[in-house]
Design goal:
α3 packs across α11. The chain has eleven helices and twelve strands. With about 325 residues, the chain is of the alpha/beta class. The protein starts with a strand and ends with a helix. It folds into two domains: about 1-120 and about 300-315, 2-Layer Sandwich (Nucleotidyltransferase, domain 5); about 155-300, Nucleotidyltransferase, domain 5 (2-Layer Sandwich), CATH 3.30.420.40. The model has no long low-confidence stretch (mean pLDDT about 95). The strands form three sheets. Strands 3-2-1-4-7 form a five-stranded mixed beta sheet. A five-stranded mixed beta sheet has the order 10-9-8-11-12, sandwiched between helices. The protein has helices at about 35-55, 90-100, 105-115, 175, 180-190, 195-200, 200-210, 220-225, 230-255, 270-285, 305-315; strands at about 1-5, 10-15, 25-30, 60-65, 70, 75, 100-105, 125-130, 135-140, 145, 260-265, 295-300.
Length: about 325
């Protein structure tokens, strides 16, 4: 048995299993208290991890960490959500507290490994994985091996800068196509409407749904509205899918993967709002000889993908 641990900004998951992409012998989900920082998360792992290791005779631990890591060195670089992780030797700490060999990966990288090993990319040799949610991350798996574990970062598609006018580190694909950007655009458009335009059917639908409170308008709300045909929601998703499609096309042009797998909460908007327009954008921007050579498909493993990926990392020979 192996232990896969997902460390995120809001949740901590510890899953024990054989690393087959399907079953957990036991899965523990805990909330993260950001005010307690990395030390609080480590206390949680130390409180439940030893018992899981002992009862299930765990051979190895694998991590999917929500932030940049030096996987080959067993070192967390930082977390952009939770303080107290800068340059932390997580592999060595885990060996000391849980008593078993440990491997460390970035959460998106291990999710890519899970989809490449057990999920939508299991029949492909080279898999590029994209997660689109609060942020946008990427992972490249070649021959069931994560690429770039010895580099400070790799496959960071969300941090591509779309065009030569994107001159700062904040002008990125993520800043246009991630969930908060989709909702922020609609909030801005509605806030700028003159009074008579606020009475239009698309505006009234969105404003009435949140009681007029623009800041309460979420990407989930807009996903549902876009699928109903709301013009504001559809326009914002169009901007997101055009930009993300451009980015995926650059990946295809450079790497020529066999398949691109897309997951994350934003992708749950579905075929009409998300995947259909995304594929059209990928086709528009791809290098012509590579068009139609790389399917863009939904992820298969759901919300436990990072835990499955951490188990796959632990189980790898």
């Amino acid at each position: 048995m192996f232990l896969g641990i997902e460390i995120g900004g809001t949740k901590l998951q510890l899953g024990v299993g054989p690393g087959d992409g399907h079953t957990f012998a036991e899965l523990v989900r805990l909330d993260v208290d950001i005010t307690r920082g990395g030390a609080g998360i480590r206390e949680q792992i130390a409180s439940v991890g030893p018992d899981l290791v002992a009862r299930h005779r765990v051979q190895r631990v694998g991590y999917g960490f929500g932030g940049p890591v030096f996987g080959a060195r067993g070192l967390v670089q930082t977390s952009h959500q939770v303080p107290g992780w800068d340059q932390f030797p997580l592999v060595e700490w885990t060996k000391q507290h849980l008593g078993v060999p440990t491997r460390l990966g970035n959460d998106c990288d291990v999710a890519a490994l899970a989809e490449a090993t057990y999920g939508a990319g299991r029949d492909a040799r080279t898999v590029f994985y994209v997660t689109v949610g609060t942020g946008i991350g990427g992972g490249l798996v070649m021959g069931r091996q994560i690429h770039g574990t010895d580099r400070p970062a790799a496959a960071e598609i969300g941090h591509l800068r779309p065009g030569i006018m994107a001159t700062t580190a904040h002008d990125t694909v993520e800043s246009i196509a991630a969930g908060p950007a989709i909702s922020a655009r609609v909030q801005k458009w509605l806030a700028e409407l003159v009074d008579e335009d606020r009475d239009s059917d698309p505006a009234k639908e969105l404003l009435s749904g949140v009681g007029g409170r623009l800041n309460s308008l979420t990407t989930k709300d807009l996903s549902a509205a876009a699928n109903r045909g709301n013009a504001f929601a559809q326009k914002s998703y169009d901007e997101a899918t055009i930009t993300l499609g451009w980015a995926i096309a650059q990946v295809i042009t450079l790497i020529a993967p066999d398949i691109v797998v897309v997951g994350g909460g934003v992708s749950l908007a579905g075929e009409d709002v998300f995947f259909g327009p995304l594929r059209q954008s990928v086709d528009r921007f791809s290098f012509p000889p590579l068009r139609q050579s790389c399917p863009v498909v939904p992820a298969a493993l759901g919300e436990s993908v990072v835990v499955h990926g951490a188990l796959a990392l632990a189980a790898a020979e």
